[in-house]
Design a protein that fits this description.
5-stranded antiparallel beta sheet; AB hydrolase-1 domain-containing protein; AB_hydrolase_fold; Haloalkane_dehalogenase; AB_hydrolase_1; hydrolase
Length: 404
């Protein structure tokens, strides 16, 4: 089932702080406060400072909702735009999509509570109804063969914005945000979804069944590749093609790079996962040649700026990846080399990947008889670095195979 995407309704987090330019205070249990100052030092740089102080009862205060709606933003300002009621690239991307309801919400239905103080959290951290909402951008004729574009960790469907127009000329193309990312639901861990890799496998099955009645081709990038391969191994009859973009395939790939593993650390990870610059900008630009434009950065930062639920989800999936990735990479190797694997598979590899080494990848593809396509100018996020080129490659691979 699909519903037209609409900006989330106004909802408040139980934590509130007062906002008065240029500083604001967050009351503490001991009567003190954190004083927050956001100051732009120079173009494209933002300085965030926290200092302890005593609150002043005479100071004028306006309630500021931490878990604010997308339309309201959170007051942060970056060069090139402001998260406010003014038009911005994130709003434009949101308008292109819709919500698809898939995968039943688990748990007891209890309202999610903040893990520190036990207070009921805002709507952004709650499960939505009986089924989760997945943000999906769909293009092309629905009568054409379906191609589903699956982003990596951590990223968004937005990363395929350059690929979509190329593929949609001949294919029914769908790009979606995983649960916990982008505009999709981000329930607080342990309240309907725990962000384990096995849950993601089951959730993907539900989503694919909802959006495509017939066979599909899957394109997946990065650290979510083992999840998709696991799904594919159980539903080979559903797939025409599987195209893997810089997937973890070897024992050396089984550990997250420090840029990502830090989000799983005790306390420190919980803090850093709430930092939009570290969770989006650094995570996307430290793994290859990708130079993020400010307009694109505004889209990637948006979820982390409008609700703490994105950070909680990032922390949870990072912990799951740290715990389960090694086993899933081993399973991926076993599945793709098994004689019973019948899905036509291609590995596209950005040679400038700083996270995953190319060593052993070529040998793996030769031994498993899978096609390998190298993209010398791309890094880990192939679709960001070489989007239009990648779209042409995918289109050629699928069209040739469908004809034959």
């Amino acid at each position: 089932m699909a519903i037209q995407a609409k900006p989330p309704a106004l909802s408040s987090h139980q934590f509130q702080c007062s906002l008065c330019s240029p500083t604001s205070s967050l009351p503490l249990l001991n009567g003190g406060s954190f004083r927050f100052r956001a100051q732009r030092l120079r173009r494209k740089h933002l300085s965030l400072r926290l200092s302890a102080s005593r609150s002043n009862a005479d100071e004028p205060q306006d309630d500021y909702l931490i878990d604010a709606p997308v339309s309201a933003g959170d007051g942060f300002s970056f060069s090139g735009g402001k998260y406010s009621d003014e038009p911005n690239p994130s709003d434009e991307w949101f308008k292109q999509g819709k919500f698809v309801k898939a995968y039943p919400v688990g748990g007891t239905g209890e309202k999610a509570k903040d893990p520190i103080f036990g207070l009921t959290m805002g709507a952004g951290s709650q499960a939505s109804g009986d089924f989760f909402r997945w943000f999906s951008v769909e293009s092309g004729n629905a009568d054409n063969p379906t191609v589903i574009l699956i982003h990596g960790f951590p990223s968004q469907a937005y990363s395929y914005r350059k690929v979509l127009p190329v593929l949609s000329k001949n294919y029914h193309t769908i790009a979606f945000d995983w649960l916990g990312f982008g505009f999709s639901d981000k329930p607080q861990p342990r309240y309907g979804f725990d962000y384990t890799l096995s849950e993601y496998v089951s959730a993907l099955e539900s989503f694919v069944n909802e959006v495509a009645a017939n066979k599909v081709s899957l394109v997946v990038q990065g650290y979510f590749s083992p999840v998709v391969v696991k799904y594919a191994s159980k539903h080979q009859e559903k797939l025409n093609d599987l195209i893997l973009l810089n997937p973890p395939l070897t024992a050396k790939h089984a550990n997250l790079p420090s840029t990502l593993s830090i989000f799983s650390n005790f306390l420190l990870g919980e803090i850093f996962s709430q930092d939009p610059l570290r969770a989006s900008d650094k995570a996307l630009t430290s793994c290859g040649p990708y130079a993020m434009k400010e307009d694109d950065a505004m889209v990637y930062r948006r979820p982390y700026l409008t609700s703490g639920s994105s950070g909680f989800a990032l922390n949870a999936i990072s912990r799951a990846m740290k715990k389960e990735l090694k086993a899933y990479v081993e399973d991926t190797k076993a599945i793709l080399t098994d004689e019973n694997w019948k899905v036509r598979t291609t590995v596209c590899w950005g040679q400038r990947d700083r996270w995953l080494n190319f060593d052993e990848v070529e040998d793996f593809c030769k031994k498993s008889n899978h096609k390998l396509i190298e993209l010398p100018m791309a890094g880990h996020h192939v679709q960001e670095d070489s989007g239009e080129e990648l779209g042409g490659i995918i289109s050629g691979l699928i069209s040739r195979r469908i004809v034959t």
